[in-house]
């Protein structure tokens, strides 16, 4: 028997046998042979019952050992919950809870693996185009007979592609830090007017090039609790999207307000609008809608979405083809 390999079990049976034998001898000496025989039979039955229950517990423990081996092999489908009372039942329920935790962690790891694979594939695709373009232009620049005008044009194009790669890598690193929860967003009272001014400052040149008008409306006392720099990054990406899809001479309106529940920032443009088919996906990474420009990589709005969501915020978009787009951002004062 497997349980006899256990030194404690052997010692228990030995001691119980000695006590029973001694009690039988004393009963025969002080009372009678009938009393001694009765005591011996009773002691033997008790020993057999002890052996039976001990054997049963060992079978249960062996089942648990097999279950744990299956868990180590990645099988989390078994259910050993036990609603009866007792130490083994408590142990079974605790093991089941640990199994659920391991199953969830395994699922998260698998999802992370899929996301990582997709991200690497998307990054490779996004980098391939500008790198290929730069290789071609570099080959052309190696021609000593190349026209000076063309040489200047190709050099400028290479610089543009390098800036595009730099922005892409920088944005991806920011997204990766947010996903890994490395970024510690500040929770400070920030005037919305100051936030808007900081964001607008970064897009004044492209707005001027396209001769876009800008109107800012809002309560100067309005504030929100969050991180000024990261939120400005989110607004800059949204404004860049508005500028990209608004024709020359168009306009952008930024309005904001604060109430007891949240602080709201609204960004409207008079651009081309977003189709209904594209609306559900515009915040997904590397998604490019039908009206996206050739230089668009589909990561700016995804970054904005992550930044806002990680600051108790929410963002939604409303748009119609030919009638412009509205981005509505809300920063809640508490979790709802």
Describe the structure.
It is found in: Membrane. It is an enzyme of class 2 (transferase). Pfam families: HATPase_c, HisKA. This protein has 336 residues and is an alpha+beta fold. It has 3 domains: 74 residues, no CATH class; 59 residues, Helix Hairpins, CATH 1.10.287; 145 residues, 2-Layer Sandwich (Heat Shock Protein 90), CATH 3.30.565. 58% of the residues lie in helices and 14% in strands. It has 8 helices and 7 strands, in the order ααααβααββαββαββ. The protein has a 5-stranded mixed β-sheet with strand order 2-4-5-7-6, covered by helices on one side. Helix 3 runs antiparallel to helix 4. The protein is elongated, with a radius of gyration of 37 Å. The two termini are 61 Å apart. The relative contact order is 0.07. The model has no long low-confidence stretch (mean pLDDT 81).
As a whole number of angstroms, the C-alpha radius of gyration is: 37 Å
Overall mean pLDDT: 81
What are the secondary-structure elements, in order, as H or E? HHHHEHHEEHEEHEE
Q: Which strands sit side by side, in order, in the main sheet?
A: 2-4-5-7-6
The description of the largest β-sheet is: 5 strands, mixed
- Helix count? 8
**Gross morphology:** elongated
Q: What proportion of the residues is helical, as a percent range?
A: 55-70%
Q: Write the CATH fold name of the largest domain.
A: Heat Shock Protein 90
């Amino acid at each position: 028997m497997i349980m006899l390999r256990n030194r404690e079990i052997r010692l228990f049976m030995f001691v119980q046998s000695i006590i029973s034998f001694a009690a039988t001898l004393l009963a025969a000496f002080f009372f009678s042979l009938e009393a001694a025989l009765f005591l011996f039979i009773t002691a033997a039955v008790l020993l057999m019952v002890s052996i039976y229950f001990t054997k049963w517990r060992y079978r249960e423990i062996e089942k648990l050992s097999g279950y744990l081996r299956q868990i180590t092999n990645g099988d989390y489908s078994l259910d050993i919950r036990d609603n009866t009372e007792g130490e083994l039942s408590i142990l079974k329920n605790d093991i089941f809870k640990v199994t659920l935790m391991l199953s969830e962690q395994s699922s998260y790891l698998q999802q992370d693996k899929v996301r990582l694979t997709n991200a690497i594939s998307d990054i490779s695709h996004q980098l391939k185009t500008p790198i290929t373009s730069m290789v071609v232009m570099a080959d052309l620049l190696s021609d000593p007979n190349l026209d000076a005008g063309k040489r200047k044009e190709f050099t400028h194009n290479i610089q543009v592609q390098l800036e595009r790669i730099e922005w892409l890598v920088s944005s991806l690193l920011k997204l990766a830090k947010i996903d890994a929860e490395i970024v510690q967003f500040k929770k400070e009272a920030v005037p919305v007017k100051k936030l808007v001014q900081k964001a607008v400052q970064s897009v004044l040149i492209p707005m001027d090039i396209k001769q876009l008008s800008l109107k800012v409306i809002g309560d100067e006392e309005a504030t929100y609790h969050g991180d000024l720099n990261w939120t400005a990054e989110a607004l800059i990406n949204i404004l860049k999207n508005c500028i990209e899809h608004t024709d020359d001479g168009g306009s952008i309106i930024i309005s904001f307000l604060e109430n007891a529940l949240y602080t709201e920032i609204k960004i409207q443009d008079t651009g081309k609008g977003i189709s209904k088919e594209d609306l559900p996906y515009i915040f997904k990474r590397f998604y490019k809608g039908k009206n996206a420009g050739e230089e668009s990589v589909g990561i700016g709005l995804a970054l904005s979405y992550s930044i806002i969501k990680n600051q108790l915020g929410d963002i939604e978009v409303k748009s119609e083809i030919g009638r412009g787009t509205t981005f509505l951002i809300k920063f809640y004062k508490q979790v709802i």
